[in-house]
Amino acid sequence: MRAPASGQGESFRCSPFRRRFLARATGLLLSSQLGLAARCAIAAGEAAAADGQAGERDAGRPAGHRIALLICCGSYPDGKDIQPARKNGRDLEAALRLHGFDVQVENDADRARFTAAVGRFGKRMAALPDDGRGIGIVYFCGHGMQYEGRNYLLPSGVASDDPKAKEKSVNLQDELLSAFPQRYPGLGVAVIDACRDGISEDEKAGSFNYSTAPTGCIVAFSASAGQVSLSPKDPNQNSFYTKELVQVLSNVEQEISFTDIFEFTRLRVAQTMSSHSLAIIRKLAQRPHITKGQTGVFRLGKARTTTGPRTAEDEAFEAVLAAPTPAEIRRAAENFLRAYPEGRYEPQTRVALAGAEDALRALSSRFVRLSLSAFRVSSGDERFAEDLRKALRGDKDAAARIAESYRVGSGDVVANPARSEQWLRYSGLLGNAIACYQLYRQLAQKGDPDAEFFGPEAVRLGYQPPKGLCGSRKSDVC
Questions:
Q1: Most CB atoms closer than 10 Å: which of 80, 190, 241, 468?
Q2: Largest CA distance in the chain
Q3: Residues 444, 62: Cα–Cα separation, whole Å
Q4: Distances (CA, A) of 360 to 399, 401, 429, 454
Q5: Taking each helix axis from N to C terminus, what angle separates 382-392 and 396-408, rounded to the nearest 10 degrees?
Q6: Phi and psi for 203 in degrees, rounded to 5?
Q7: What 3-state class would DSSP assign to 122?
Q8: From CA 109, how far away is CA 169, in angstroms rounded?
């Protein structure tokens, strides 16, 4: 939940699930009238002003191929208003218009307006030329919850403890993500800056369920499963996550992929919170979560020149892109950042460095039995090759898709159950909770003791299997 704060100081509000912890951590007296999830007040700076004209900032963009719908719900019962909601919408609209997006904003929508807006957006997406260049973004700021393994977005006026909250809410998977055409290449982006409440005691309090993005989609959450989402009480400030996203979008110059935009936003949020002056903010720090379905490569910003004079900085960044192993990616990225700490390609390079470090950690685990030779495969189609490149850079979802290709055999890839398990292990260690759960079930069936690691790991990462999908073996996973 989002917490109000006084102008000078910072205060915290907490749910019954977290009161005991916060009372010990802060020594504050918590009111019994406060909401279900932690509501934390933080100081947040104004978003950076956009500079330059749209044509200069995003040269060569295809006209009429970019649309966005921003649904900003700030009015909720029982004092659970999200005061930055409207400013989030204004600032994100301005940032997207810099890049040629046709943006529509809905403030404080009830369910009828919410679903009608999503329906209109879906029709506009379907009407875009099917040329692999169309981009659609849906942004939601508001409260969210999960019920029986499904994720729901609460329209304005709906309380999370309402017995009919589920019926009054919008199902993320079935109603919002379905607005995006499921095609490759294609890009639909859902950005969920939402609080997270469970509405039943047997479900993990305060969490959306872990999910994966469908083909053609990126889904970016402001916090990981089981975490709170932080924002100030001030209507003149942005929520924590949206502030960083607006700044990243407003300062795009050299071309950058959408994946890197959201990964860089995630890194900025993590860095800002880890260095926050208040210990309790550092303790509760939200970690944005991104899940990526298979998409083409979509970019914003001025395209890199492939002809004409090239600078030393261009060459250093090319070395990052061309590096063939995680260790070499890390080395090239570190060299770039030492030479050009505020260079034109700094965001992309920091994302590459973080991904390479994630890959190296996963590959060094005793639970992963994947050699670098597995990344050098000549078979497979364009999608498989794209996923290999992404997996080399720490993409957990690409690794899971490769595991599936080896499981069933697809295109030129021959079915190989052993190799499929290796890739699933790698995906799980990169943080894919569903891969961990699939491994748990597979390994438990054949009595592999590694099941005892992957089962709890799926839970730790936030996956809650829908009822009836648990394995026969008794485990905390279920």
A1: 241
A2: 67
A3: 51
A4: 14, 19, 10, 19
A5: 140
A6: -100, 155
A7: helix
A8: 11
